[in-house]
Amino acid sequence: MFSLFYGLYKYMFSKTEFHVLILGIDKAGKTTLLEKLKTVYSNSEGLPHDRIVPTVGLNIGRLEVSNSKLVFWDLGGQIGLRSIWEKYYEEAHAVVYVIDAACPSRFEDAKSALGMLHLLCFFMEEANIWT
Known about the structure:
Helix content: 25-40%
Number of helices: 4
Number of domains: 1
Distance between the termini: 35 Å
Largest sheet: 4 strands, mixed
Oligomer: single chain
Strand order of the largest sheet: 2-3-1-4
């Protein structure tokens, strides 16, 4: 009987959880975007700009919007860290790719990293990983 009520409670009050990857090359503004999202959509104050340091590995941010939970994975964009991006694709529901428009000299690097992301998504789709 308990499991019936628990299942009903969970169905009525649980929120769907979505995982969102925030990707881009190093110093593109991924962590700044995550902190701004936290400031705008939650009661917590995000980090000020002068306290944001380059991400080594992963930053996680959680937001609740209407009846959904959003889990943001801000992955480091240094060349050596881009190889870990693929480990998060299978669980992701969305990808946000950040480009720093104030730094045109890095557009080619951002384009190359986005191209590798596109190739990886293509191979994962061909291998039926997402089906």
